Amino acid sequence: MNIYLISGAGSGIGRAMAQNLAAAGNQCILLGRNAATLQQTLKTLAGDNHKVLTADVRDIVSLESAVNQLGNLTFNGLLANAGIGGENYWGEADRWNDIISTNLTGTYNFVNAFLPLLHKAEGTKHIIITSSVLARLGVANYSAYCASKAGLLGLMRSWAVQFAPEKILVNAICPGWVDTEMSQEGLQGIADGIGITKDEFYDIAMQSVPLRRMSQPEEVAALVAYLLSQQSITGQTLDINGGAVMNS
């Protein structure tokens, strides 16, 4: 049995990661800001050895408190999945700092806070970062989100080199449209902004996806499970976007 710590585990891709790993007999530690949604995830997991940690990846003190609750527990993998989306606009209500501090700085905080517990585990260990297809593409009024997700890829590559001597493999995934609550809210928001229905905008959005469908969270979780199972891939970004971006 391996032990994995998953941030942003209260919904969407994070919940699917936990379900996949728990079904395979692993122990999952669920971390997030919302205790209620974490408990909802917990109820869906196979097995009874999982734990919930309430912490904010933007707050180092909050993360340190979470670390102290774990005692001598060690991890085989850190899954840095916490993030927020949406638009941002220059001005008093600009969300730039909130998005960057959650997605980019929050990932940096999360991994570094729990890194000592990863170091203690035996054998090959993993850090997997959830980036986005928007690390590859530009979208108007998503400057903070695009910048934060692109920044995660640079962070991943640096850590892959830095931690390789300690047998820690570091990789990132770049999901495209995934059928989660965040994506559905994004579809609705953009649709409202241009004055059409969500279904109409969905059809428009899928025109740039060769497979003409959203991925399911379970499909992304399966890719993560594969990365956790291997010992040769590190410093890489794996795209899962229905063909929306094809890199050589």
- What's the number of domains? 1
Question: In DSSP terms, counting alpha (H) and pi (I) runs of 4 or more, how many helices?
Answer: 9
The total count of strands amounts to: 7
Look at the structure and give the mean pLDDT: 96
- Helix percent band: 40-55%
Query: Outline, from the CA principal axes?
Result: globular
Strand order of the largest sheet: 3-2-1-4-5-6-7
Instruction: Please tell me the CATH architecture by its name.
Output: 3-Layer(aba) Sandwich
- What can be said about the biggest beta sheet? 7 strands, parallel
- How large a portion of the residues is in β-strands, by DSSP E? 5-15%
Secondary-structure element order, as H and E?
A: EHEHEHEHHEHEHHHE
Classify the secondary structure makeup into a structural class. Answer: alpha/beta
CATH uppermost class: Alpha Beta
Terminal CA distance reads: 36 Å
Contiguous uncertain segments of 5+ residues: none
CATH topology call: Rossmann fold
Rg from alpha-carbon coordinates: 18 Å
